[in-house]
Specification:
mainly alpha
Length: 351
């Protein structure tokens, strides 16, 4: 693969698809605060006050207008304290809903759908704007999985990407492929959590679900970077793989590496690094299919990388590679944990 093709792919992935859809410093600070169990909803006020645009849009939210007007009427004219009103709004909504509201503002900014007139009200719709993030959070909550807040962030990456793709008026091919890419990521995440639960304690184990989820991001990006009309087509490649009856997965692995300057797994890692939520485990995502590369250079990330590779294969119905089985053996873990996880994912586990 030529250096020029790789550079072109990197530039396009970053400048066109990722950088314009980044969460931004205010949302990142809000997320850091909401992850802190010692902090309260009202503590969001000073963070939002540092960005006057966010403060003004929150005060314009349509469903908050009755309360905002009541609070303004309580003080003498000209003595309104915006910070106090924001604190009341966040306490009223609670930590989770406040986070969702601020994330909705960021997504509206990315998608150029914020109100343009001073008199115009803001009508956020977190259930639609944060659809993937909320699905992932509720998926974990419904199963009593730990780390639903990190699952939210894993899903938020998809919402950020989709909002930017919509702004770019991405092709029908890309838009139609997006739900499948997300579904694939969610299935990998499900496998990752169930396998991780059987591996015992290891560094960064709390990222099993969210990091597994991220592996679908690269697939969505691959459709955008390698369209049907291009020199190489990701959709065309997948169709070709499906026709194979012999050595299917070996063919897929070799041809994917040969045809695409940036493979989906590399695009997933690039997205995770740029969005920043999973930056600390990005190498585990990048080397999920080749965890042995991390065994000596980043040993604390090695178990997570091995787990992610097992989960991705398990979700696709691909047997673990010899290297993966050797990795499990080295960690003194039985290969049966993969089958046990598969039964749990399918709902056939013994109760």
């Amino acid at each position: 693969m030529s250096v020029g093709a790789l550079q072109t792919g990197l530039n396009q992935a970053l400048s066109q698809y990722l950088v314009p859809g980044l969460p931004g410093p205010t949302l990142k600070r809000v997320i850091e605060m909401t992850l802190d169990k010692e902090r309260y909803a009202g503590d969001l006020a000073p963070i939002v006050m540092d960005n006057s645009a966010y403060a003004q849009f929150i005060l314009k939210v349509d469903f908050l207008q009755t309360r905002v007007k009541e609070w303004i009427a309580e003080v003498p004219e000209g003595q309104v304290n915006t910070r106090v009103i924001l604190e009341r709004i966040f306490i009223l909504l609670g930590k989770q809903a406040s986070r969702n509201l601020i994330a909705s503002i960021r997504l509206a900014r990315i998608g150029n759908t914020l109100p343009r007139k001073k008199s115009e009200r803001f009508s956020p719709n977190p259930k639609e704007q944060l659809k993937q993030a909320i699905v992932c959070e509720e998926f974990c909550e419904a199963r009593n999985y730990a780390g639903s807040d990190l699952a939210f962030l894993g899903g938020l990456q998809y919402d950020l990407l989709l909002t930017n793709l919509t702004r770019l008026k991405a092709s029908r091919e890309v838009q139609n492929a997006f739900p499948t890419a997300f579904s694939d990521g969610l299935k990998i995440a499900h496998f990752a959590y169930e396998i991780g639960a059987r591996m015992g304690s290891f560094p960064h184990s709390e990222y099993a679900f969210s990091a597994g989820l991220s592996l679908g991001l690269g697939r969505a990006l691959a459709y955008a970077l390698y369209p049907k009309e291009g020199k190489v087509s990701y959709a065309g490649f997948l169709a070709e793989v499906e026709k194979k009856n012999v050595m299917k997965w070996e063919f897929a692995a070799l041809e994917e590496r040969a045809r695409f300057p940036l493979r989906p797994v590399e695009l997933s890692a690039l997205a995770a690094m740029n969005y920043g939520f999973l930056k600390r485990v990005e190498p585990a995502i990048r080397f999920s299919g080749e965890a042995y590369y991390l065994k000596r250079v980043q040993p604390k990330l090695y178990p997570l990388a091995l787990l992610l590779g097992l989960a991705e294969n398990g979700a696709a119905g691909i047997p673990p590679t010899p290297a993966m089985l050797e990795g499990l053996k080295g960690m003194r873990l039985p290969p049966t944990i993969v089958n046990e996880a598969a039964k749990a994912v399918s709902g056939k586990a013994k109760k």
